[in-house]
Automatic annotation (TrEMBL):
Keywords: Lyase, Magnesium, Metal-binding. Belongs to the terpene synthase family. GO terms for molecular function: metal ion binding; terpene synthase activity. This is Terpene synthase. Its EC number is 4.2.3.-. Its cofactor is Mg(2+). The keyword Transit peptide does not apply. SUPFAM superfamilies: Terpenoid synthases. The keyword Heme does not apply. Pfam families: Terpene_syn_C_2.
Length: 360
């Protein structure tokens, strides 16, 4: 299982990164040392090894400084929280205790100006992030982020329940769960805040833009499954990884499952590019929407640019960036029909443009 080698990724989007990334990282490290939710020196090194400033600077390469800084703080926080309370640790297979922990945590985010009921450094740091978002974003953006954060915690709770029951989910259930458990909803909700522009609800909540947001989320989530497979194998928690799910569902060898994973993500990537071009080129698309759609593309590309060099994965035998898998010029599967996954088949439906009004 640990000998699987990544293949080239199909993502015809140019790389980009925010020019202030080094300064943003320095500020973030000072912030980390203020709240110390990493525990000890080893935990600190692990958190710093996520390269979270680089990660999000690739998602929003033209972002505003304050919004991008707040987003980077949450990404550092999110990786640390995921490692010790979601993927591993005493709560990672105990749904009752996990929910009892994340309920007050979520509420603390929604009320970041009030003293929390515990001195948990994760709670205190999350409240600081909530206050920063309120200061640099709009009330709508803050609410969208809080809602997305709740969706993520729900997805993780689903994952924890599967682990507790020793259950390997079906491909359909795993896909639906992974849309939340990966951390994609809050990560992408931060794009508006990092951009410094609020996308009108009529556009952001339209079927086409909802589909594009979910596509970007799932591509990055499946790509993370590929990048992290060696790490998860070493740490013995590959129970809910796309490779594992495909092997269980279809009786595939590891190499066959890897090839199928690439085919699935490439078909979603091709659909994303088609729909994004149509929506972004619409004559009534707002500048904020076009900037958001641009960032979704940067998120897909930036996620892999980051993953190929980050110590989080390279420390587990992943290939260094100079010897990485590179980029594919064409998708590994060129079929344009919907994937046979009910949870996401609607992405291939005829999607109305976001500004079109429906007659009663």
């Amino acid at each position: 299982m640990t000998t699987l080698e990544l293949r080239p990724f199909y993502c015809p989007i140019e790389p980009a990164i925010h020019p202030d990334v080094d300064e943003i990282e320095r500020t973030a490290v000072t912030w980390l040392d203020r709240f110390r939710f990493y525990g000890d020196a080893r935990g600190r090194a692990r958190v710093l090894g996520t390269n979270s400033a680089e990660f999000y600077a690739r998602f929003a390469p033209h972002g505003c400084r304050d919004g991008l800084q707040a987003a980077v703080h949450w990404v550092y926080w999110g990786f640390a929280f995921d490692d010790v309370r979601c993927d591993a640790g005493e709560l990672s297979a105990d749904p009752a205790r996990f929910l009892a922990m994340v309920g007050p945590l979520q509420r603390a985010l929604e009320n970041p100006w009030h003293d929390p009921s515990s001195g948990d450094p994760f709670v205190l740091a999350l409240q600081d992030i909530g206050r920063a978002i309120a200061a640099c974003g709009t009330p709508v953006q803050a609410r969208r982020f809080a809602d997305a954060h709740r969706a993520w915690l729900f997805g993780v709770a689903w994952q924890v329940a599967n682990r507790a029951a020793g259950r390997v989910p079906t491909l359909d259930d795993y896909t639906a769960m992974r849309l939340g458990s990966s951390g994609g909803p809050p990560t992408l909700a931060l794009l508006e805040i990092a951009m410094g522009a609020e996308v009108p609800a009529a556009e952001l909540d339209s079927p086409a833009v909802r589909a594009l947001t979910e596509m970007a989320n799932l591509i990055a989530s499946w790509d993370n499954d590929l990048h992290s497979h060696r790490k998860e194998t070493t740490e013995d928690h590959t129970d809910q990884n796309l490779i594992t799910v495909l092997r269980a569902a279809e009786g595939l060898s590891p190499e066959e499952a890897l090839a199928e994973a690439y085919r699935l993500r490439d078909r979603v990537m091709a659909r994303f590019l088609t729909v994004r071009e149509r929506v972004a080129s619409g004559p009534d698309a707002s500048p904020a929407l076009r900037a958001y759609l641009d960032c979704l593309g940067h998120a897909i590309r930036g996620n892999t640019d980051w993953a190929l060099r980050v110590p989080r994965y390279r420390g587990y035998g992943a290939q260094p960036v100079s010897a990485g898998p590179g980029w594919a010029g064409t998708p590994s599967d060129t079929r344009q029909d919907p994937l046979p996954i009910p949870a996401i088949a609607w992405w291939w439906d005829p999607l109305e443009t976001p500004w079109r009004r429906h007659e009663p």
